[in-house]
Amino acid sequence: MSSRTKALRAEYKPAGIRSICLDRLRLFTESYKLTEGEEAWMRAAKAIKHFCEKRPLWINNGTNCGEGELIIGSISEKYRGASAYPEYAVDYYVSDLEVLQDRKYRSFIIDPDDREEWISLLQYWKGKCVDDIKTSRLKFEVPEVYIANQMGLGFLHHEVEGPAMNSVDYEKVLRVGFEGLTKEIKEAQKKFKQQNDKLKVSKLESMRIACEAVIIMANRYAKLAEKQAMDLHTSHPKRSAELMELARICAKVPAKPADTFHEALQSFYLTHVGLWIESNGPVKSLGRIDKAFHPYYMSDVLDKGIISDEHAQELMECFLLKINELERLQPLYVAENWPSNYQTATLGGINPETGHYDYEQTGRLILRAIKEMRVQQPTITIRWTDKLNEEFIFAALDVLKDGLGYPAFQGDPRNFRWLRDTMPYYCTKPVEVPSEHYQDWAPVGCEETEIPGKTSPMLLGRINFLKLLQLTLNNGFDNISGIKAGPDILSDFESMDELWAAYKQHLDYWVDVMNKGTRIVHEVHNQVNPLILSSLLVTDCIGRGSFILEGGALYDFPAPYRKDGRYNHMGYGVANASDSLAAISKWVFEEKRFSLKELNKACLSNWKGKEELRRLIIDNTPHYGNDDPWADEFAHKINEMYHSSNTICGMWHSIGVHVTDGRITGASLDGRFDGDPLTDAGVSPVQGADTKGPTAVIRSVGRFDPNVKNWCQLLNMWLQPAWFTSRDKMRDIMTLLKVYFENSLGNQIQFNVVNGEVLKAAKAEPEKHQELIVRISGFSHYFVDLTPNVQDEIISRTQQNYK
Fold this sequence. Notes:
The chain has 32 helices and 21 strands. A 7-stranded mixed beta sheet has the order 5-6-7-8-18-17-21. Strands 4-11-14-15-16 form a 5-stranded mixed beta sheet. It is globular and about 85 Å long.
């Protein structure tokens, strides 16, 4: 870490209070008032342009104009500021305003003088935003969605924010710039004019305006940097020279192709800022950043010697800090449970042209910068392949041992197979995916696999599989909410086959509800903000004259505009459901020691007076996660049942709702009490139930989806720091990863590396542990910025000791 980045990093306080800014809300409202009656895409494009033309800009020149930032740009008028995205929602921006500053987790302050204008501006959007439009439709067309939400059975994502899992072609911007993209748009417009397709010409014009907006913003930064350079020319000549260089760079990129490492970083970042201006959708994947920056790093540092390796690392550290500055306002229930801004990046994998990992020097540079900066974002994933050099893996594990909760790891073999053989089936029109495409994959969210710049974003629902089992056992009645819903099936099952059949009927009913609800949310998003800027950075939206929410992407997955109405939905609580089914099978139908009615009654009483029974079940029922084929088969059958329902493909992870929805899920036959968290992640065993070590866990996961049907399955594991005390021990971790990925047992694994006593101390004295980062589900976050419930859930997980 250089003295510059050390000073800049000191300004970034992990649990510090963030600012609410009016700039986006004010300028977007101004623009939308001027464009009433125009098409939604033109209104969105013109609002982005208006914002880029008028928004306040700032540059951090450091203390006393000393060593300031070397990558510039922001999404708001203040450091770590966030603004409203009223095209998506209004109500929570108003209702949460009073608690945003006082809440303990992810606090935001607003200038008292801005409060009245904030509320006044939001009123314009009432009835016009995604949240209001979809609510009026859902209440009339699919009211069951709200019943599912009340019960904690499931809910729809992206009701109050933009679509997620967006991964655009940043590399194309570096190669051709927005001027090159504009030329491509004009060529497509010419083609559609000849076909007299005025609609597509209009959509392409909105893309051209979006290109112009980003160029305008960059040019304004260039002028600001030049002005500040002139002002500091005499008093601070060194900073003045740096600002003049930034002025030169921003006058060039991202309008034109990047030629240097510094230009590539700045071009990439301003493009990323543009995407944030367009939408607050969670999970903006940076893609394969080692691949993107590699030619520029190699040219400047190793080939031409224009800059030193130390300066290249300083630039990368500045880039990482700027990624962390980007903030978004979240509803209180979101901030409490998945507080991350979800920006992901990938290292490793292979070069599709050579079949080797050709970007190692840049990957090692990025790992060094991450280790120095210790920031929570971007969340890094290593693409595991047998082509990775052992020293590169050691470098990744060296970052992991510092307790960041990342990098996570995902394997090429299974993901290649899925993208090549399974994904094409789920696109609107089955397609063949060439090797140069699927070999360029990157995770875009917690661990969802996409092809950057060639796939669409995500809209989906979520389903709590433990709650679903409880409804099955109680004829659709939920004892926590007092609601009865779903199919009317008597629960006096006389065999496991009858129970499985009823479970499947309940699943089919609620998947259908989620499909109908997600379809409405999808339609409303495309109606309000079809994501113009994102679309022009995804193949083949320009060529097709269509946006990514309406089938413009080359591979319209994971949110295809399907006529059959099927969507992806995330499942969670699977290990709780699996262990509960195992208990029923063993104690009711195999050993016949208890009736199903007896066990269910004990759960409904929250195990009151039944602690001996509860311990019997916990201690004597085989659990998923211990390499027991009998126990693992229940999880496998749940997965197969899910795939046979009317969903597109299986997704297993919780993001963070395993804590929230655990609060409204009753006691269960895996030994849970009312309100306890569900199992973390997706295919992780129940907390504390995996007692036979890491190898047993991955073998169990391998039985979960042996035919590679799942799109994603997230696995959390907690390793004690003793695993990292020598290279020989770290080689044991490498062996674990090698076995897991090269035998296609699973597609993802992530680790917490921290002593449990440290977590307890941090909870008790948070002021002493401000920099402690942990893995929650598919993201990392500062431990002291989490709610006590989430902290306790992390502490309850199985600690895998080195043996």
